[in-house]
Request: fold
Amino acid sequence: DTAVSQTPKYLVTQMGNDKSIKCEQNLGHDTMYWYKQDSKKFLKIMFSYNNKELIINETVPNRFSPKSPDKAHLNLHINSLELGDSAVYFCASSQGTGAEEGYTFGSGTRLTVV
Amino acid sequence: GNSVTQMEGPVTLSEEAFLTINCTYTATGYPSLFWYVQYPGEGLQLLLKATKADDKGSNKGFEATYRKETTSFHLEKGSVQVSDSAVYFCALSKSGGSYIPTFGRGTSLIVHP
Reply:
């Protein structure tokens, strides 16, 4: 069973469109994250939810809106897509801050905006 | 604030060579330290961890020792294989406080046959 699953794996879309990425974890973790990885492999944290409550909201355009319907799911909706949004987006989860067991990552969603 | 500094890559080695990837950190208190590996086209996977000073994490022939006196957590492997080619990330996290995990910028390892 996949621990952290993201869909879709690939997403190609035109500028100006709205798209969503879904994430689910079956580990029973209480904290979930969205990361953006650029072409140089730099990981930037975007959002984090703990028990459905938003606890980290880094400097991200408000075109990006996360939603956590329950603690096993964290979705990311992006409005008015721009060329600079092209990247790989990773979902991750942890128990608490992750200090004991670390983080479990999904396999990523490669977003290409054309 | 917390930070992690890794050596820049790429690190290019021949098969069976010795590997060291340096990682130093800045943090108050006693963070937990991790190494993650990212194979091409995949997500990050936890490679090893150490949660207190002088702990040694190990997995798949890789080792790293939590050195508080030098604030370091260098990754080592005695004999690398072509299949070890990947990007390696050093990271830290703290309990009972900020939920913002801190990752280094990643070090690419390329192993030639």
